[in-house]
Amino acid sequence: MSKQNFSRRKFIAGSGLLLIEASLRLKGATLPKMADEPIIDAHQHVHYLSRTNEQLLAHQRAMGVTTTILQPAGSPANRASTLFGFGNGLQAEAWGNKECYAFAKQYPKEFLFGSNEVPDLPGAVGEIEKYLKMGAVVIGESKFGIECDAPEMQRLYRLAQEYNVPIMMHWQYKKYNYGFKKFHKMLEKYPRVNFIGHSMTWWANIDKNNNDPTIMYPKGPVTPGGYTDRLLSDYPNVFGDLSAGSGLNAFTRDEAHGKEFMKKHQDKLIFGSDCTDTSGHSPTCIGANMIAEIRKLCTDKKVERKLLYENAKKLFRI
Fold it and tell me: In what order do the strands lie in the sheet with 167-170?
């Protein structure tokens, strides 16, 4: 083929792509953003507050996420561990194992799935194990009103150990996963299990002076040495999920501390969005804002890549 013909074909192909793009924009469609660098989002949900599957897909692509891990809800149940139904659907209308698995299989290059169940339901272990055998990469999101060292929870820890997958824990004072200050005992009892900490109580406790556990989104300067800070420092099997408003608040409330915290725990933090937004863009999207905050505070590019990609790739064995 002559150089002239090759150049002509490249021009025609390029023109065709431009015409397709222009046509889609005229119809109101948005082309997926091509990511310059891979990003793993460790925390999203199907049907999050009625968000459609199409909106979820567009949201993740708009953020530049290349791999998303879907965290399913447990089965609807009316019992104490689900706050008598209030906590069904992870208190967010999130769908369960079947729907997350189906969505991930529809987009296998972009989505992975977790496995979950109300831990004190009969057959909980069997339900979770079913999806672990089908390829689930995490147990969770574990968001239930039960003591963190309850026998039912310890059965899940042993299952996570057996299948070599992490378990994601939603910590919320007097609501989900009780007994945060004794969590270190579980870390010691199950040293081969990787635990991922998430949500309000987890992130409030980066501050040594966090003396009021009822304040879910504390403001102001952070004093290093809080319980969460110590867990990340002292236990190799504990990690932090940066997602949701609680994660974003933890770093925007004191950016000087946040910068040092990311540097200090650069091998223990993973990005997640866990937001209900449909745009995938700032200023409305928590996930997009967290990505921007990571890039702002991580002046070392190597640290940024760990938080946005490498740590999750290793933790979830992607």
Answer: 139-142, 167-170, 195-198, 238-241, 269-270
How far, CA to CA in Å, does 299 sit from each of 56, 265, 271, 304? 30, 14, 16, 8
Tokens representing 296? Answer: 């702002």
CB 260: neighbour CB atoms within 10 A? 14
Same domain, 154 and 245: yes
In this structure, the answer to whether residues 24 and 41 fall within a common structural domain is: no
**Tally of domains within the chain:** 2
Q: Residue 305: what pLDDT?
A: 98
pLDDT on residue 59: 98
Domain that holds residue 233: 35-315
Q: Are 305 and 37 in contact (CB under 8 A)?
A: yes
Block residue for tokens 């933790």: 315
Task: Quote the tokens at residue 113.
Answer: 């799935």
Please write the tens of the pLDDT for every residue from 1-18.
433 433 333 333 333 333
Alpha carbon distances (Å) from 127 to 159, 234, 258:
11, 33, 39
